[in-house]
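Workshop exercise sheet. Pairs work together: one partner reads the sequence aloud, the other fills in the structure field after running the prediction. Swap roles for the next sheet.
Pair: D.N. / O.F.
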Amino acid sequence: MILDPIQRQQQLITRRQFFGKSSTGIGTVALASLLNRDLFAAPAVNMNPLEGLPHLAPKAKNVILLWQGGGPSQIDLFQHKPGLEKLRLTELPASVRGNTRLSTMTASQGKYPILSALKPFQSYGKCGRMLSTLIPHIGSIADDICFIDSMHTEAVNHAPGVTFFLTGSQVPGRPSLGAWGTYGLGCLSQDLPSFVVMTSSDKDKTCGQLFFDYYWGSGFLPSKYQGVRFRGDGDPVLYLNNPAGVDRSLRRSALDDLAAMNQHHLERYGDPEIDTRISQYEMAYRMQMSVPELTDLSKESPETLAMYGPDVHRNGSFARHCLLARKLVERGTRFVQLMHAGWDQHKNLSYQLEHQCRDTDQPAAALVKDLKQRGLLDDTIVLWVSEFGRTVFVQGDINNPRAYGRDHFGVGFTIWGAGGGFKPGHSHGETDDFAYHVTKDPVHIHDMQATLLHMLGIHHEKLTFRYQGRDFRLTDVHGKVVSAVVA
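Structure field:
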């Protein structure tokens, strides 16, 4: 029987504790035997990427990303090509198609008949922007919007396309845009997460695309920077309420004891994930008070609720999420990512496009108007964006109204931004008469990422994180700021 408490503790040590304690010493000895002794004389270099942030005067401090999952049709919504009406159902010339990359769903089609816009366009705002009559509410804020009609990407499928825009790589594993932003700029709120995500879909659930956690993940950054997903049904955050029989003071006492133990482990092992765990426990405790107040819409005026449309009263809707996004940035959340599915219209374009516009047009415009009237738009970026656009030619049977649509297309699609430094009432870039090739001012995915960071006061080449022996950044080794879209 072991009576010595020290010997008894050594007998009870776990495998994890053993390797945690021994790895540093063993690793240092092994490294010292391999390295040249002169290397230890090298002067210390401060590699902290956060030093000196922001790098320049920021135009914005918050971002609301309105992700339109699936690929909205730029031909039907944003890019007015009146000449296509005369060419309707005629063959898209091979000289126009060229070697442009298409998805496997249409790359081997025998014919490529042109499909003009489904609905008429009209001029909106003092800027005179031509937009589809399917999106009149977005048209009503045309003078506040910067339209970018020359976006292009290498991706032709959904998951790689979404991953590319949100993480800078088509392969999962990199930190997301929101994680990079909060890593570089920090938190503005003590009671709410700095990065919040909400997902929604069209009512008919016509889009089969999934939203993966790595779209808002932290990758190789500490996990404290990953997005916190708010659920659309039930409690926004799981386990927000105390268990039966546990009051707030008892929970506070338990968290204090748990924090002390975690702090002890942090000091012994230096694992940044322990620090993340401490901060998450504390944030969860504060969210018990802040989240119920956030999601309570009873204090919103009838005029505000009406502005967002009737769907604002439905839990989990895009309209409700837009209103919550305004409330989040109002309370200091740095980055809000709303992801809405339903735009992947391969065979249901003739009827589903209108439904999708009805669900998203009014709430998106209301968000911009609401921020503007509260004085929040100047330092809040609102970005309406997707992974790619759609083809000008038909996919499916044009003679069957419920069996045709448009395929994915990564060249010359349209996104728009408002507030936070975007030039209002401005259109940037152009495509040819077929909306097929960019003819002026192309903007790549990495360029857009660099521009967003620039508006937040971050030089995209300077915000880096060393991982596996390399300094990584959101824009990889590419990207340039599109100064023409910055006010």
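Discussion prompt: Residues 349-373 form the longest helix (25 residues). What would you look at next?
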